[in-house]
Amino acid sequence: MNWNGFSLRWYKRLLESRELWRAFRNSIIIAVSSAFTATAIGTIGAIGINWYRFRLRGYVQTISFLPMILPEIIIGVSLSIFFAGLGIPLGLFTIYVAHTTFNLPFVFLLVMARLDEFDFSIIEAAHDLGATERETMFKITLPICMPGIVSALLTAITLSLEDFVITFFVAGPGSSTLPVFIYSAITRKGGITPLISALSVVMILGTVFLSIALRKFVKTIAAK
């Protein structure tokens, strides 16, 4: 490789790549939608299991952590077979379902960790003062759990954005996400190209700035 000096040409190529922007758009859509869905379901499940004592509670908790234990390739192949058996065409919807599935245990674990520190005497005091179950949930429980919920949401978005293995098995034509696009570009060109290097720089800088902003945001939420 010959050194020809610094250039912004490859960053310009990034802006002109329709395939790249399509993959980026797909990644954002899938990450945000699956993260919000997993956060909603995981939060409800964590609150339900933490509040109510029932016979199979331990088994439910164990099963909910299975996606964290199993290798991603097993989850990806299993979901691919599952979708094929139901006749569901691979695409953005199947990626959304897959990402929601593997995000759930992480959300569940983070919200449960917050609930373990919860002082239930606050709820009892609220009931003694005449608060209904709904008022207790939305005015006491959720605000106290909000730092854990926000952390779970951000974790789910991050896991979804960086996932390659599961997405590779459940993605269809035209539904590639950014990690799949990068892998395809490297295999097509036989190695890392200047375009991929430029994309890596943009992603690293974007991650740094986003991490700083999100850290300040979470601290603000926790302080309230």
Automatic annotation (TrEMBL):
Entry keyword Transmembrane: yes
Keywords, comma-separated and alphabetical: Cell membrane, Membrane, Transmembrane, Transmembrane helix, Transport
Record's subcellular location: Cell membrane
Matches recorded under Pfam families: BPD_transp_1
Occurrences of domain ABC transmembrane type-1 (ranges): 24-214
UniProt GO BP: transmembrane transport
Cited Gene3D superfamilies: MetI-like
Statement: the UniProt record of this protein carries the keyword Ribosomal protein: no
Position of the signal peptide: none
Residue intervals passing through the bilayer: 28-52, 73-98, 137-157, 164-186, 192-214
GO CC terms, sorted: plasma membrane
Lineage top rank: taxon: Bacteria
Recorded topology in the membrane: Multi-pass membrane protein
PANTHER family with a match to the protein in the record: PUTRESCINE TRANSPORT SYSTEM PERMEASE PROTEIN POTI (PTHR43848:SF2)
Family of this protein: Belongs to the binding-protein-dependent transport system permease family. CysTW subfamily.
Identification of the protein by name: Spermidine putrescine ABC transporter permease component potC
Gene source species: uncultured bacterium contig00032
